[in-house]
Structure formats: C-alpha cells, structure tokens
Amino acid sequence: MWTEKDNKLSKTFKFGDFQEAFAFMTRVAFLAEAHQHHPNWSNVYNTVEIELTTHDQGNTVTEKDRKLAEAIDELNA
C-alpha cells in the first residue's frame, strides 16, 4: 500500500534477492520513461524504496504520481 505523507507517495518493495530487486527497478525505469515521470528511489540488497512527488507542481502529490504508483503496482502483481 502506498502511503501519502509530507507531499510524497511512498512504498517499500521487498524481493527474494538483489537480482530480483534490480530487475524490478529496471522495469520501473522503462515505465517511468513512458509516463515521463521519474521516482526518487533507493535500493539496498532486496529492498526498493520509492517516493513519488511532482517536482514541477511544487513537490506535491498529483494525479501523475497516483497513475505511476498504480502502474508500478501492476508491474509487481
């Protein structure tokens, strides 16, 4: 579940290992390009943390963030 706090949508994804986490990040990267909207994220071993905010709208959560979050969830379903 995505959490909205401090003008960001955030979610943590856990995988079996680093390779699975990195593969997920690669899929998200292509998805983000298609949406022309790019996440702030980090990866430590099997954990990927993603934050979404719309920088050109004053760093607030917009429909653009919600649509990308939904698309990311579909990748991970």
UniProtKB/TrEMBL annotation:
E.C. number: 4.2.1.96
One Pfam family matching this protein: Pterin_4a
Glycoprotein found in the keyword field: no
UniProt keyword list: Lyase
Keyword field contains Lyase: yes
GO molecular function terms attached to this record: 4-alpha-hydroxytetrahydrobiopterin dehydratase activity
Highest taxon in the source lineage: Bacteria
Catalyzed reaction equations: (4aS,6R)-4a-hydroxy-L-erythro-5,6,7,8-tetrahydrobiopterin = (6R)-L-erythro-6,7-dihydrobiopterin + H2O
Family from the record: Belongs to the pterin-4-alpha-carbinolamine dehydratase family.
Name under which the protein is recorded: 4a-hydroxytetrahydrobiopterin dehydratase
